[in-house]
TrEMBL record:
Gene3D superfamilies: Hypothetical protein, domain 2. It comes from Chitiniphilus purpureus. PANTHER family: DNA-3-METHYLADENINE GLYCOSYLASE 1, DNA-3-METHYLADENINE GLYCOSYLASE I. It comes from the Bacteria. This is DNA-3-methyladenine glycosylase I. InterPro entries: Adenine_glyco, DNA-3mA_glycosylase, DNA_glycosylase.
């Protein structure tokens, strides 16, 4: 017997199985995961948090997210780009976040890269949404295969000096920020995400909705 791709949520409706792992995941799954995002700060925050997740669980990062926001100036990359060793030392003493020097320094490094990227493209969103991925009709969602768009984005970010942005990290970022709808078809949220993507105005593009570009 094959393993079902969904599990019933607290309201009795089917959802992606992973959102039942811990109670915190259902709200995150229903309200955030997969919905398209154009806000530069949210995009930068998510990429940073995915970097912090490397080697850890998403639950660890999600439960500490408000602490991360407090510690990292709400992920305002223009402010973070000004951080130096004094701020790094302070962050290493902050028990509310993941105290990993390499990851903390990567956030500051990536903030500087983000400032340059923002100046070049006008917004981070305009840059990231170039890598929108559409899953083929025959492809299964949430597979371990990484689409070429994620590999391409990771490679380009590395060329631009970003750190802790391997293909797996980048793909998780794309799934969460709506650059691909990776909800399983039977999930009650999948259609809502599709509708949000149809109505979404992609930054930097002249055509207004995903439907017009299908």
């Amino acid at each position: 017997m094959s393993v079902p791709t969904t599990i019933l949520g607290t309201d009795g409706l089917p959802r992606c199985r992973w959102c039942a792992i811990v109670p915190e995941f259902e709200v995150y799954h229903d309200c955030e995961w997969g919905f398209p995002v154009a806000d530069d700060v949210r995009l930068f925050e998510k990429l940073c948090l995915e970097g912090f997740q490397s080697g850890l669980s998403w639950r660890t990062i999600l439960t500490k997210r408000e602490n991360f926001r407090r510690a990292f100036r709400n992920f305002d990359f223009h402010q973070l780009a000004q951080f130096g060793e004094t701020q790094v030392s302070q962050l290493l003493l902050d028990e509310g976040i993941v105290r990993h020097r390499g990851k903390i320094e990567a956030v500051i490094n990536n903030a500087k890269c983000a400032v340059r990227l923002h100046a070049e493209y006008g917004s981070l969103a305009a840059y990231f949404w170039q890598y929108e991925a559409r899953r083929a009709a025959t492809a299964l969602p949430q597979t371990i295969s990484i689409p070429p768009q994620a590999t391409g984005l990771s490679k380009d970010l590395k060329k631009r000096g970003w750190k802790f942005i391997g293909p797996t990290t980048v793909y998780a970022f794309m799934q969460a920020m709506g650059l691909v709808n990776d909800h399983v078809a039977a999930c009650v949220i999948a259609k809502r995400v599709d509708q949000a993507r149809e109505a979404f105005t992609v930054p930097g593009r002249t055509l207004q909705s995903f439907g017009r570009r299908a």
